[in-house]
Amino acid sequence: MTHYLVGARGRLGQAIAHEYADNEIVSLDRSIYENWSQPGVPDQVSRYFDKCSNEGATVFVASGLLDPKLSQEDLLRVNYHLPKNLIDGAAKLGIKIITFGTVMEGLLQSKNPYIQTKTALGEYISTAAATGSPVIHLQIHTLYGVGQPSPFMFLGQMLAAIRDNVQFKMTSGRQLREYHHLVDEAKAIRKIADSALSGIVNVSHGKPLSLKIIADGVFQALGRDDLLRVGALPEPPEENYEKILNPTEMLQQVAFRDSLPAIVQYMKECHSCQEA
Fold it and tell me: Which residues of 80-103 are buried (b: 16+ CB within 10 A; e: fewer)?
């Protein structure tokens, strides 16, 4: 059985690739799939996988754009049309397609353009799974642990403030978030990929932290409490302040690491790299 990986250069793609032995996974070069987000390409996708795939193959679609400030056209192209065309072209060959979204799809009625594209993809996959297509849409939480954090994400914003020696202004920090180390997440993804599940699956360990707890821990550990300004920004009206998702039952044997100390250690390492 062969596993194919679309988006091997991203953090999630790197983690998935490292979870499998080299002879178990094929990372597709971007030149192969760079036009697979265009209209009319499912037949091209079918021809590619019909030629090179074997029975029981799986395709991980780990490519994706996370920054909601990017154009709606780009977000739709990468986050929706690319995986949709892969489903339309490869799933009919019996190839399992695994895509990635966000748990915020089910927690918020969000106007965030990124979340909207993932919600649309999840809806499409639900319909495809209902008709028997071998498709899985994993709703994942916030990931960390590979490379530097993205500058538009919470961890990246904190790191930039500490690096630049400027105040970090945030809300009350009551928002709840699960943080998953990418190495742990890849193990969870593999377990789900090996199962008979289809449709929408959320990947949760059930131990969220408030953003305030994370910020307090990071700024204290790096000795920059003086920069943290909790409550300096208004709370967003639409946020997750209360909902805690139950741990995903089939992942009980996956040893997700304790989030706060792992985040603090990761941020220390990132900060040290910036100073070097």
Answer: bbbbbbbbbbbbeeebbbbbbbbb
Sorted by sequence, the CB contacts under 8 Å of residue 272 that are 6+ apart come out as none
pLDDT of residue 92: 85
Asked if 180 and 203 touch (Cβ cutoff 8 Å), the reply is yes
The first and second tokens of residue 46, run together, are 């079918």
Residue 252 structure tokens: 């009980």
Q: What is the pTM of this model?
A: 0.94
User: In 3-state terms, the chain is what percent helix, strand and coil (to 5)?
Assistant: 45, 15, 40
Whole-number pLDDT of residue 54: 66
CA nearest neighbour of 196 among 106, 108, 96, 123: 96
pLDDT tier at 275 (50, 70, 90 boundaries)?
A: low
Q: How far is residue 208's CA from residue 202's CA, in Å, rounded to a whole number?
A: 14
State the Cα–Cα distance between residues 145 and 257, nearest whole angstrom. 11
- Which tokens hold the place of 91? 């799933």
